[in-house]
Design goal:
Strand content: 5-15%
Number of helices: 12
Helix content: 25-40%
Number of strands: 5
Structural class: alpha/beta
Order of helices and strands: EHHEEHHEHHHHEHHHH
Distance between the termini: 17 Å
Low-confidence stretches: 3-33, 39-53
Radius of gyration: 18 Å
Shape: globular
């Protein structure tokens, strides 16, 4: 678990995360900019933007759609796709309705039918929706998240191949994992599909101070901690799809491609405290 002290959301402060076992810290908005500029000075952020003062935060409708407010418990979940987001949303929706057997008609991701306060109701009033509420999310190892995105969104043809097109391929084309990785690593984070967008952008760490950020790698333990702090159910309601472990283990990258991942996702690795190899 990664913890933060909450200050003002509208004041554009940010809390950066820390590695497992390290002392959590709170970091100012100014420090976020310095942190980013350091990456640009090292040449690690050249694929992201030509503006060295870029702030890791979503804007406009993308930001509004990332927020899911459980009014019953005073919580805000910031969506981070491919990190148990289906499970978290379903649990929050059931909690909001006080209905443990609730199942959405279409999908937990359908904003229009969600019982949570979200887009479009909060569009233009995002800071008000965040103010005074407990804000949380979960993160995942960047490489494992890319593997999951590839298996679920690229290898499997979904939404008429829309995800393949957004990754830079034809709707009917099935690229191998390394081709997918090289393509998405060349994209700018604000323009990336959220399933492979840098997590520091999905979480808008340049704009939001978090009370709690858990890790998927220890989801049960961190969820129990979150439950104790917020009143959420002790066990989350599982939803979504899990990629088979043998399939993931078959997705290898060359040393050159691994270096590209390390550079393109440098902010995630450094800010969220992950090493390049998940088993380290």
């Amino acid at each position: 678990m990664l913890c933060f002290r909450h200050r003002s959301v509208s004041g554009m402060h940010s809390g950066l995360t820390c590695p497992i076992g390290a002392t959590p810290r709170t970091t100012s908005y100014t420090t976020v900019l310095l942190h980013l500029k350091r990456f640009f000075k090292k040449g690690m952020g050249q694929n992201m933007t030509s503006d060295p003062a870029i702030v890791p935060a979503l804007k406009g409708r993308k930001f509004s759609r990332s927020l899911h407010v459980c009014r019953r418990l005073g919580l805000v979940y910031v969506n981070n796709p491919k990190v148990a987001c289906s499970t978290i949303k379903l649990t929050l929706q059931r909690t909001e309705l006080d209905a443990p057997d609730y199942e959405p008609v279409r999908s937990v991701h359908a904003h229009a039918e969600s019982p949570l306060l979200t887009w479009p109701e909060i569009e233009g009033e995002e800071d008000e929706a965040l103010e005074g509420r407990f804000i949380f999310s979960f993160v995942r190892h960047p490489l494992e998240r890319l593997r999951s995105a590839y298996l679920n969104k690229i290898k499997l043809r979904q939404k008429r191949g829309r995800f393949r097109v957004q990754a830079g391929f034809d709707a009917n084309e099935v690229p191998d994992f390394e081709s997918f990785v090289r393509a998405v690593c060349a994209q700018r984070p604000p323009e990336q599909n959220p399933h492979w967008r840098l997590q520091v952008f999905n979480l808008s760490l340049g704009r939001i101070d978090y009370h709690f950020i858990g890790r998927l790698e220890r989801f049960a333990t961190d969820w129990a901690d979150l439950s104790a702090q917020t009143g959420l159910p002790a066990q989350a309601s599982f939803a979504g799809k899990s990629s088979a472990k043998p399939e993931k283990e078959d997705l290898h990258l060359s040393s050159d491609a691994l270096a590209i991942v390390r550079k393109a996702y440098a902010l995630d690795f450094e800010t969220l405290g992950y090493t390049l190899y998940p088993d380290q």
